[in-house]
Write a structure and sequence with these properties.
Elements (H helix, E strand, L loop, with lengths): L5 H16 L11 H8 L10 H12 L21 H12 L7 H22 L6 E5 L2 H19 L9 E5 L4 H10 L2 E5 L8 H13 L5 E7 L11 H11 L2 E5 L10 H4 L10 E4 L1 H4 L7 E5 L2 H8 L7 H4 L25 H10 L1 H23 L4 E3 L7 E6 L4 H13 L7 E4 L2 E7 L7 H13 L3
Parallel strand pairs: 2-3, 2-4, 4-5, 5-6
Antiparallel strand pairs: 1-7, 6-7, 8-9, 9-11, 10-11
Amino acid sequence: MHAYDEELAQQVIDHLRHRLRLDPPPLGRLGDAGELSVALKGAIGTGPRPVAEVLRTYTEDLEPTVVSCDHPGFLAFIPGAPTKAAALFDMVLSASSLHGVSWLEASGAVAAENQVLRLLADLAGLPAGAGGCFVSGGSAGNLSALVVARDTARRTRGLDDRAPVRIAVSDQVHSSVGNTLRIIGVEPLVVPTDDHRLTGAALRTALDAAERDGGAPVVAVVATAGTTNAGIIDDLDGIADQTRARGLWLHVDAAYGGAALFVPELRDRLRGIEHADSLVMDPHKWMFAPFDCGALLYRAPHLARAVHTQDASYLDAIHGADGDTPGEWNPSDYAYHLTRRPRGLPLWFSLAVHGTDAYRDAIARGAGIARWTADRVRGTEGLELLREPELTVVLVRRTGWRPEDYYAWSKRLLASGTAFVTPSVWEGETVARLAFLHPDITEETVERILNSMVDDGS
């Protein structure tokens, strides 16, 4: 199984070349469980099968039932659109079986990842000593960072390792933060938002009340730079004023919106992010890296290392008998993981190949098409723009539609190969939600989408 097989390599590479040449790739479709069960019957047996036969099962039966996130018309959720350079280098990463746990095993890979992390830290305005690691995404980053916030607060406040503490979050915070707090046994202090945006004033009121209510101390605050549902950026500057005045840890979830730091015209919307104690940005979203790639940064990485470094006799070689040599960096010390692939390398390769100006322009394109779409909605009878887009999410109401109308329309769009747009809920009402990230999305495609809402309307 481990010997080089020319036929296997050639057929897989031929398929990859074919896939990469598609412009755009097929949008894909929803699969049928019965159909897929038949297609997969007997796929895995006790003996070998011809490479061509197995690959045909994938290309003819499996791949068509996967909606392509890298299609320009994938406007659901938060899409991904990896550059060809990043996608190709992800193949190199897998083919080389690179391990990214420690400097001992992967110094070159870690050094390249850290070069990207330094770029992101500089864009965010974090100090020279900031650092961290790449994780699988925002969920893993939020979990890792908030464990550090919790444990650091307990230690600096002289609390018991199990002492109850609270972390302030908005009522719009990402679902992964709620999961994280449940996992780590921390009670949330939920702060109401003003027009779906957490403000420094609302946080001050909530923290003052928390100091009087006799509950567990609040030790950290989570702010969001780009909510998933609407792309809203919290009042980072005002929130930072409160956390600095009260000695609280500030965690910024910029998994989606952090990419805006590349664009001078958008950067000011994230003012205050430079005060973060921990920060998450997902390059597999608006920075055009393959899944799964999340960047986790700490203002003071030694605090994370004190929490996350794993001790075991077989790991002594990683940390060295006399401690680490200056300049060495073990990514396993900065998140809950141990085994990891150096998932930041495809992003490093793409940035090195294309340059940051190309990234700036591609990211700006997403924001530009969102603004264009908002203008188009305003000028279309029967459609209503629900709020001005701060980043790249546009929320649209079709006059007279019920929830089932939106879902039926979404299915028709996908079946036609035009676009993948899933409805969402805004202030209790089902609406259409378009999330623009792919720089190749065209005004013509958006016109077709919006016209289909009007043409399909009652």
